Amino acid sequence: MSAGPRISVIIPTHNRVESLLRTISAFERQRFELQDMELIVVADGCTDTTTSTLERRTTPLDWKLVVLDGLGAGAARNAGAEAATGSLLLFMDDDIEPAPQLVEAHVRAHAESPGRVVMGPYPPSLRGRSAFFRMQARSWWQSHFYEMSKPGHRFTYIDLVSGNLSIGPEVFRKVGGFDGSIPGAGGEDYEFGVRIIEAGIEIHFEPGAAALHHEHETMTLDGSFRRARQEGRTNVAIGRKHPRLRRGLFWDMLESEEAPRPQLRYLVFRRPALGRILAAMARASLPVLELLKMRHRWRKAFGALFGYWRCRGVADELGSEAALSAYLERSPAASPSTGEDELVLDLAEGLDVAERLLDASRPRSVYLRYGEHDVGRIEPAAVAEPLKGAHLRPILAERFPWELLRVLALREAALVEPRSTHGPVI
Amino acid sequence: MAIKVGEVELGRPIRPLAGTEEYDRARLLVRFRGRPVGWVRLGDGHRRVDVSPERIREEIDRQLASRIVSRLLISGIEPRWTDEDAPKCTVVVCTRDRAELLQECLTSVRALDYPDFEVLVVDNAPSDDATRRLTSRLEVRYAREDRPGLDWARNRGLKESRGEIVAFVDDDARPDRGWLRALASAFDHPEVSAVSGMVVAQELETRAQILFEFDLGGMTQSLERRTIRRSRATARDLLWASSFAVGTNMAYRRSVFEGERAFDPALDVGTPTGSGGDLEMCHRLVANGHTMVYEPAALVWHIHRRTLLGLQRQLYANGTGFGSYLLTCARNGTVGRLAILRFALVEWLWGWILKRLVRPHGLPRRLVLAELRGAIRSPFAYLAARRHVRRIASIGEPASAGVEPRLARVRPELES
Amino acid sequence: MATKIVQMELKEPTLDTEGLEGYDTMLVLLRYGGRPVGQLRVPVVGGRVSAAEVCDRISGTDQWPIWKRVVQEFVAWEPEDAYPGRPRASVVVITRERPEDLTRCLNGLMALPDDGQEVIVVDNRPQTDATVRVVSGYGDGVRYVREDVPGSSAARNRGLREARNEVVAFIDDDAVPDPGWLRGLVRNFRDPRVLAVTGLVMPLELETPAQEEFETYSPHGRGFHRQTFSAATHYALHVAPIGVSANMALRGDIIEVVGAFDEALGVGTPARCGEDYELFTRILRAGYDIVYDPAALAWHRHRRSWPELRHVLRGYGVGVYAAWTRLLLLEREPSVVVMAARWFRHKQLPDIIAALRREPDSPPLDVQLEQLWGCFLGPLAYLRSRRRLRRLGVTS
Question: What is the pTM of this model?
Fold first, then answer.
């Protein structure tokens, strides 16, 4: 009998009592010793029957209730972690239903290599045909987890989603927990991801720790746009804390020809009234386009609206265009200086050798050669885990196919010894 | 303004190019196992061109990488040559009073890397015996054809050849060492009756040469091997014989002439038409169902006309020659006459000549005008040439079966 | 005249030039490390082909699929195969009174590497026991199922319900799988967005004019580039480029996700075919993806006689229009009318004009008119088919 629970399951919740009960029931059915689990529900600004229902309900799990005043998902999670006594913190959102082997999978992943952050997949439970925006969201989530499950995936800060995430309490404290000052929900996990990567903590994706996300139950079209606005605000906050990321976060609002939608910046800052009218018109057009099954146009309208609301969120935080320009200007160069910490790899010595070298030195950028030919450079990425051996082959196959082909061809051509059937006449 | 011309073989270490002090640009033919892959251009025209091996490799890498990759893919399948199957070849060089130029040509010909070939020089209506003396000194075969006209000389060469394959090269050109080998390998397939090869500028010293090579299309410069068959070719493809036929570099299976007439002596250099005999021969062979191959690995280096005046004269001759060639096609009925007319007006006169008169893009208009003048004169030149042929056919040797051109049927309405 | 079909492995290139008498063309399937990467045609003259010409054709072809394989082999990494674990498949062959074809197909299936797959033969409304006898020759290796509701859709749906594994692969009984066929299909199902995979189909033989014409006019193959089709980037109703049901795989639970094949469509119904077309649009419209993977190669024996060719092409016309009728009436997709108009204006009409003008390489007029007539009959055929189903007591 262990001295106290090993796993603390922390569920922040806000006015979703039915969904919360479903999640708790799923934890009660885990293929894991229930005595070794404790459940901490953080009711953040709940105005529905959450607290009363929980108090009346019986559960075999050891559980606690923390009540907060609507501080936001990040603060809620921090509060839960504070109240936890286990040796592993498992964060789960209230609309996510874990499969029976989820806790077991998280524990095993940590046993394999302690001190890491483990994420599990939670693809949407929505099946079949549905409203356009729901199908689009489902596709986004599925591809997100599919990418992360790819062997050799290089994690960046935007990979970190906190709906099904486990971390050791010491690591959590060392990193400083979530940023409680970010209000609402949306974006606080990206910011957390930045600090995780900068602290050099390993991120691991565990496909076995599977869950289902019932987001379609509470998701609405306008909810998506509200979330977009929140994302805009959160991005500004993230950029304030981590100035290096500013240009990357707001790449679509930079004053350059490459900016995909310069009109958004114009509409939001300089002609806000016109912007509001156009946004209302675009919003009204969406159901019509969907009825007419004009998928491509619907997608464009949705995308434009989403970008508009993100920009509005940015405007909420920064206020004026001048402030935005100043904010972006004070962003240092995106990539750190190239000289330091760059590894030169000669692929002609063999890919296995190269992988071992990468694992040994974990550089941020790599210069690739093949014999005396240049292949290319793996640029340092803004906030991504340092390179390791498993990253090499996917990066080569996806980003340098042509360079490799060229180099292999030139090498082979040079090795040929033709008979002297000709000679320069000149 | 001159461009240094050179070549590079990928399979061998690249040697630095000599003699480049005066040049600010260079153009190198890059070869892989002897086969041309592409051209590499060096230099920006402002300072002395850098032709160090590193620079050359860099530029090859940058400009030709995809072609090299493509070439390597098929290098395992390319047919391999063995000496045992080498058919006997006769190299025929027709010449007229150009002994020094001929000497350089023959030096290259005798250096050809091929197990079984003979060299035959056909001296066309010479004014002295300089050529004869040269050939006896160099120990190559000599034949003399007194009827003036390049096609008479070619037919004489055909008649006197003893090889299975007859390969023609002009006296102002130099074949690459592997030329015969490449030609013979193209004949490996029994269906093939004629092969032509790539002709490349040996020097790009003067404006005339540069204009000819780059703005006027040069001679056959395509890097892609082609098989030309009637069944797969449109009338337009057939009539644009200049894309697959060039007199400076062509070869025929001698047995073909047992069933086909030889070169039409009304055409080409030395007659009023000035050119076109090579085009007409190749066009007629394909039109009659033979297969022809254009093989860029059969490479010949040619010195283009150095002066603008010389170039102008040549273009004039091209105009008269091409028009006469089309008239000959119409006469022989190889392609429908309506199609020839449409081709002559739309593709040739408008598409090739007049369009460039309107928008020369740096080409001196008088050169285009020269070709136009030739084109306009071509019907008259053609008639004059036919008359000429009838006159001189009566002199010279009696016809021997199959090789001598049968006299063409005279069409009364074209008679003056 | 006929076309000889050969294969060439680019890593060890040898050209098999035996037995070319009587053929006027040679069709070469190019492979790199066993994977199909391209094809070319070379004329055969006097029983010979020129190796030089083969090289020229390779130089002239789209080499990117070859280059991609070269790099993938060098790096020893391919996205679809990088993930651990391989889903298990059930192979379903629907058949009706074609014992020789079925035998050839089953022999090919038995020769596949064993990845834990099961093979099911669905015998659709048999009149004799020919199929039973063929299947019994394979013992436990092949499961026999009899489906009496007529139509390839009903047979496939039965196959889907009988299948025990998570991927269901379909192959026509007149096709033969390549050794890499099943793995080529199955490897694409790791992506959860993918609900269906189609594969490359090459002709097994091109001996008769009807087979040659079929391959020219309406080939089953869709090229050598692996492609993902999703409604986000691809017009959801335009599924012709995606592939054919002669060689495809579906996720085992597809019936719960988007529904089953429409039993009013398909071979054996008045609607003649179109069931795959309609299902593909349904998959895309439900927000899922379809992958076309040329690594999943199957060889299909086209119908040999000219009347059969006309019959098949009329069937295509009927089937496509029948599927569009369903889309218009049941799924309420008005843009099928636009598609029909576009198809007519940009493909059917120019082809007819070309045939009337006797242009070379134009499709034969009688075949085109058959297809057009089939299009005309399509909508009513669909409605008749639905009535027939109701009478049989089957809901769809």
Answer: 0.89
Q: Which residues of A touch B (CB under 8 A)?
A: 373, 405-406, 409-410, 412-418, 420-426
Record: contact A151-C82, CB cut-off 8 A: yes
Contact: C13, B76; criterion CB under 8 Å: yes
Contact A394 C285 (CB under 8 A): no
Same domain? For B369 and B221 the reply is yes
Kindly list the partner chains of chain B, i.e. chains with 3 or more CB atom pairs below 8 Å. A, C
Q: Examine the domain organization and report whether B201 and B267 are in the same domain.
A: yes
Please write the tens of the pLDDT for every residue from C135-174.
Answer: 999 999 999 999 999 999 999 999 999 999 999 999 999 9
State the Cα–Cα distance between residues A397 and A405, nearest whole angstrom.
Answer: 10
Do B208 and B288 lie in a common domain?
yes
CA distance B361 to chain A (A): 31
Mark whether B184 and B69 lie in a shared domain.
Answer: no
Which residues 56-75 of chain B have a CB within 8 Å of chain C?
69-71, 73-74
Query: Are residue B332 and residue B195 in the same domain, yes or no?
Result: yes
Query: Does residue B131 share a domain with residue B184?
Result: yes
Is A136 in contact with C232 (Cβ distance < 8 A)?
yes
Q: What are phi and psi of A82, to 5 degrees?
A: -60, -40
Q: Decide: C153 and C275 in contact? Cβ < 8 Å.
A: yes
Class at the top of the CATH hierarchy for domain C85-302 = alpha beta
Smallest CA-to-CA distance from C250 within C379, C163, C150, C310 is with C163
Measure CB to CB from residue B61 to each of A406, A417, A422 and give the nearest one: A406
What does the pLDDT read at residue B415? 33
- Least trusted range by pLDDT, from A89-93, A324-328, C127-131, C268-272: A324-328
CB within 8 Å: B224 and C13: no
Shortest alpha-carbon distance between residue B10 and chain A (Å): 6
- Can you give the residue range of the structural domain that contains B116? 87-416
> Predicted ipTM?
0.88
Kindly state whether residue B79 falls inside one of the protein's structural domains: no
All structural domains of chain A, each given as residue ranges with its CATH number in brackets, are 7-218 (3.90.550.10), 224-329 (no CATH), 342-412 (no CATH)
Cβ–Cβ of B12/A418 closer than 8 Å? yes
State what percent of residues in chain B have pLDDT above 70.
94
Do B247 and B142 sit in the same domain of this protein?
A: yes
Number of domains in chain B: 2
Å between C64 CA and nearest CA of chain B: 10
- Suggest the residue from B64, B68, B77, B82 to mutate for an interface test with chain C (most C CBs closer than 10 A): B77
Give CA–CA dist C362/C353, Å, rounded.
9
C60 touches chain B (CB under 8 A): yes
| Residue B249 and residue B127 share a domain | yes
Angle at A160 between CA A64 and CA A255, to 5 degrees: 130
Last residue of a domain, one of B50, B74, B98: B74
Residue B80: inside a domain: no
Nearest-Cα distance to chain B for C58, in Å, is: 7
- Provide the pairing of β-strand C2-9 with C23-32: parallel
How many Å apart are CA B64 and CA B62, to the nearest integer? 6
Distance CA C164, CA C53 (A): 49
